[in-house]
Amino acid sequence: MKYSKILFVTVLLTTYLVFGNLYADSIKDELEKSPRHAEWVKIKSADNHEVNSFIVYPEVKEPATAIIVIHEIFGLTDWIRLVADRLAAEGFVAICPDLLSGMGTDGGGTESFDSGDEVRRAIRGLSAERVKTDLDAVFKYLQDLPSTNDKIGVSGFCWGGSKSFQYAVASDEIAAAFVFYGSAPSVENVAKISVPVYGFYGENDNRINATIDSTKNAADASNVKYEPVIYKDVGHAFLRRGMDENANEAQKKATKDAWTRWVKILKEL
């Protein structure tokens, strides 16, 4: 019995690694084959800090709405870049700043860390001021592009979702904030928000969802537009999981519904 359990765990881990690597390869392949123009740019913030960012342009005739995509606690991964590419396919200029720029080995960013644990520790060590200063610089970069219009949204996933919510507190210039399963700011800070906030949450994610009601009550009391939607039968990080070819039906449906909603709101800004 003992050896059967060991064998089962070994097979499970092997399967997870194999399918995980296949998914990672499919992401890289889709990025490589994308017909859209994408490039890496270095953006200097107010204190001369350089933010390495990946930007993708849509194939459109007119200046486009832009969206900042803030990465998860895993840093700037290929999956985040894929989200940007798919947003560009929908007609938006999408940019992903690496908020670990300059924090890694030899002044590198996410890619320069030796492990995921190191990335997570480094992200936890970022100050709110550092994040805001860098996002301000990215926002201004988008503002100054001749290929964008005057509508710039901010979005994020998990850790990035929390930062997008916090940026809505700090900035009255963004067109909207899109929070994917990120924690909310304090009730006191919710009252300071002057832009619409749209939330995307998995039903099985009480760690995040436990504060939705209090956040909604605080928003309503201050006439802040906060529209949370909870997607059934999925948990945290459902959009990333739902984009995987091996996702279950609930994850695929939640991802499709959330993506459709996101694009619709962006087009109506």
Care to give the gist of this entry?
This protein has 10 helices and 8 strands.
Query: Which value, in Å, is the CA radius of gyration?
Result: 19 Å
Query: What is the chain-wise order of helices and strands?
Result: HEEEHEHHEHEHEHHEHH
Strand fraction band?
A: 15-25%
Dominant shape: globular
What is the arithmetic mean of pLDDT? 93
Terminal Cα separation, in Å? 60 Å
How many distinct helices?
10
Biggest sheet, in brief?
8 strands, mixed
Question: Which range best describes the helical content: under 10%, 10-25%, 25-40%, 40-55%, 55-70% or over 70%?
Answer: 40-55%
Numbering strands along the chain, what is their spatial order in the largest sheet?
A: 1-2-4-3-5-6-7-8
Query: Unreliable segments (pLDDT under 50, ≥5 consecutive)?
Result: 7-20
Structural class: alpha/beta
Strand runs, count: 8
* Assembly level: single chain
List the helices and strands and how they pair.
Elements: H1 2-33, E1 38-44, E2 50-56, E3 64-70, H2 78-89, E4 93-97, H3 116-124, H4 128-144, E5 148-157, H5 159-170, E6 176-180, H6 187-190, E7 197-204, H7 206-209, H8 212-221, E8 226-235, H9 238-242, H10 249-268
Parallel strand pairs: 3-4, 3-5, 5-6, 6-7, 7-8
Antiparallel strand pairs: 1-2, 2-4
